Structures
1.
Amino acid sequence: MSTDSKTKKPLNSGKSYYVKSFGCQMNVYDGERMGEMLSDQGMQASETREDADLVVLNTCHIREKAAEKVYSDIGRLRRKDGSTPMIAVAGCVAQAEGQEISRRAPSVDIVVGPQAYHRLPELINTAKTGHKAIDTDMPPNSKFDVLPSRPKQPRPSAFLTVQEGCDKFCTYCVVPYTRGAEISRPWGEIVDEAKALVDGGVKEITLLGQNVNAWESEDDKGHRQGLDGLIRALDRIDGLERIRYTTSHPNDMTQGLIDAHSNVASLMPYLHLPVQSGSNRILKAMNRSHTVESYLEILERVRTARPDIALSGDFIVGFPGESDEDFEATLEVVRAANYSQAFSFKYSPRPGTPAADMDTQIAPEIMDERLQRLQALLNEQQFDFNRKLDGKNTRILLERQGKKDGQLVGKTPWLTSVHVIAPDAKIGDMLDVHIDSAGPNSLQGSLIRRKAA
């Protein structure tokens, strides 16, 4: 029985919910799907968690102290009158912590892992009786089979999960333990969801997966297809203007997928391909299964297929045993790759991973210094990429309001943000713009006026 049952507000159809998602884009997708499922059950989305009858904390377990941050967030949900909403902890921290969450945070009513959130409505019904509801199973049947169809979307760009889980077992990563083994969603299921998104107003779809380019399935004719085949099929959907995908693993970067960047018009010239380190010794310790040489050879083939492609990557500095020479090798890879943007982090040990038990941990002050040097180089490359767009004409997809009157913000094909004054335009429009100036993080543009016929 919940220790806070007397201060819980009853949860019924028509009550409100609030979903807060942390971490990766797949968590954003999962959070949206949970919201859609709750709406399908008759609940209403709340603008703030303070006004919600149910708060779902959709958690990420990648970074250090992720669990502690969740417990801190749970504590902030207590209201001035001493009551709390019904609280559900979902996602990877829920999967990793399980029963421990209920022990440490008695106000939590529901704990549900990322492969079981389709059971959220029945877990809510259990919690309404005052009992804790915990489900961290990884059922063999697909959760996607029971989720509701996609409603009209509030934004012109949407995520679509096509692959989940990971079989790579990098020594620093918890994903194989929190998301399970690699699973590809069926072809027809993905195509149907993509069509529903486009029918609901979406013009750009980003295909998601822990290793998205490991996706494979049989098409509607029984032929085995990889991600490139799926992209070519989605390219034929009327109204779908843009296709992206993330995150890719170098070992699954097929020539067919590289060629798609050359001859599929809707596939945007952007590739996020993490390398993590520029040292083969560290890559081996990470169990990354690719080398610096094989990674750079892939980038060369990608640039041959699509010379204007924007490249992005991930880096971990301070992995156990990383020497000054190893770090300098990482800087050399960054210089050779020449990224348009990239993500970099200090290594943080995750409980249960092999790297956490290595006895060659790097001192925090050394990691700090290395991260600053790496990010300075990456920021310089990003600014250089943006400056190369200065003076060019391009097409942007408007995604949100800007801070100035009549200003809107859209994305280029290379995923850079452009601020433009367009008082007669609306979110979701595709606009032709001239890039007037470039900043470190975004661009300023102006509308290209078409002459009347």
2.
Amino acid sequence: MENADELDCIVIGGGPAGLTAALYLARFERRFVVIDKGEPRAALIPESHNVPFFAQGVGGVEMLRRARDHAETYGARILSGEATTLAMKGDGFAVGFRHRDGEETLRARFVLLASGVVDIPPRLADADAAVLSGLVRYCPICDGYEAKGKRVGVIGRGACGLGEAKFIASTWSAEVTLLSLDEPLVPERAEQSTLAEHDVDFVPIPIRTLVRVGDGIEALGYDGAVHRFDIVYSAIGCDYRSGLAKALGAAVNEAGALKVAAHAETTVPGLYAAGDVTEGLNQIVVGMGQAARAATHIHNRL
């Protein structure tokens, strides 16, 4: 690729949002590339039954493969590597691109950031394998239905998991226990009332580590107690991959998620964002919808 050639758009991220943007931009016959670091959060989904048209369920790797193949059918160019820098350049942007053969700078009129988030894993050896097996999960909106009637542990820092425990208990499971890492779990009076109202148990002594045992998970407390669950939801939090946008002054919320307007444009003109890196509901279909809206708006502006 000639570095001097200005593209219409650079999409940063090869997850569901980025690949949806690629499909739309390709069908709009725009000149663009997708920079894919190869670490999409969706790849850890063992099997989703929450994505329309996949009633039989679909694994994250297979879903991404299909989305990539679909976009490439229309000529989408997906480059393996990492976007390392993002800067304003004239009427557009310059993106530093590191790949196996070195580094270069790509230029485009618009940039769509679909870089997602990185979940903070619970203290568990081989956490990714536990996620792929469905023993550890991050999103009860996505797969809480599959936890119906099972023994569920929700682990967070302090009382941060209270909202998630309440959500699961009020919707799917009558056996929900709130756990804490490192710090004792001492709910305030209002929190105790919420726990009691939704029949959520809690363990005051913090959890030292998690261990996979057969088809379940054991939470080992600092007091030597062992708490066994069918599924553990991690409500520890996540890190938003919004650094490139923040370096340009894009507005974020307290957690670091990008704030976007109606067409998924950030507060930096010409810089769009879609998917989990943005403020709001972290769902595959939401990210895909944002990406479709952003790609269409970019096309119309061009």
